[in-house]
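Hey,
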Amino acid sequence: MPPQALERERRVVVTGCGAQTPLGLGVGSTWEAALAGRSAVGPITRFDARDRAVRIAAELPAEVVNPGLPAKEWRRLDRFAALALAAAEEAVRSAGTSNGLPAPHRRGVVIGSSIGGVDTLLANHRALLEKRRVSAFTIPMTISNIAAGLAAIRHGLTGPTLCTTSACASGAHAIGEAAWNIRRGAADWMLAGGSDALVNDLVVAAFAAMRALSTRNDDPERASRPFDRERDGFVVGEGAGAVVLESLDSARARGAPIRAELVGYAAGGDAYHLAAPDEHGAGAARCMEAALNDAGVPANALGYVNAHATGTPAGDVSEARALRQVLGDAVEHVPVSATKSMTGHLLGAAGAVEAILCVRALETGWLPPTVNLEHPDPECSLAHVARKAIRADPKVVLSNSFGFGGTNATLIFRRWEE
């Protein structure tokens, strides 16, 4: 069905979710830990950080489980691709693989990553210096789009196959662009999400050189503290999130479980600075307003906002100002939380994992907290869900993701009700 054949834009629903996060290997364990307000930040174990300025990160609690690939193929994956495939496997399984799936060319995949396989690049650079040789798989293992390509191969997806590389908005952009493919009739079923595995010496040192990271090395569980007056930067995390999106007609035809409806998406830019946000939050506000307009939802109808808030001094203030501008009088009662306080910043995976937490909030009626919010910054005055989860029964939720270069993404989900 070509886009021009559509008489109306199609509705998009979420039928599957999968996650590999520092809080847990799977959506269930991740959600349970988020509601419990557990911080996943601890000492770095993936490299020797003893003499580094930053010695903490949010690492996975266990090794990624091979979802069924031949052992030889699994060994050839960079960690970011392995995480993506594990999350994708859970998402596809939870969406159901019964007869009635759209044809392979009507199913596609968009998986984002901020940088790609840095671990593989570093290992092969060391090998080049020491042995004067590198693996023939260096490039295929490193390129950012390989996670999407491998997921397409794994699940037989011959429809649109794309990668979004838009810094920390990569995962959210992936979901939004996948939804657009369904809305305009280019696909019926899309696997979408984001993955990054950047807890390595180079990336942590580079972020530390920018003074973007928390140096609360002796108190790691309290290091990630968005919106708090004592915040001193974000904490690098690793992980992946994936969702299955379908046209409503496709989901109904095959009896798939409908978890939420994706009703709004917008992408925008600050055009301000290569790394710093617009201090007034103008770009973020425009993006949220565009997503609300796309959804046909007034700001005062929002029941929850999952903020991008990473814990940097400038970023949190900018987003708070944007939220106050968009919410207006509703800012007093729309709950806001920053789940990066628990997961750390998952970079290209953040938007996808946070979208899944939003879907779970709609399904359960519970809102995860911002932990470590002990001294709220007056410049970040919002209706914070502070330290403990609350029962709120939201019907519409909004998730923000912003990235270096001033790239912005906003997703809006609505509770599914027949």
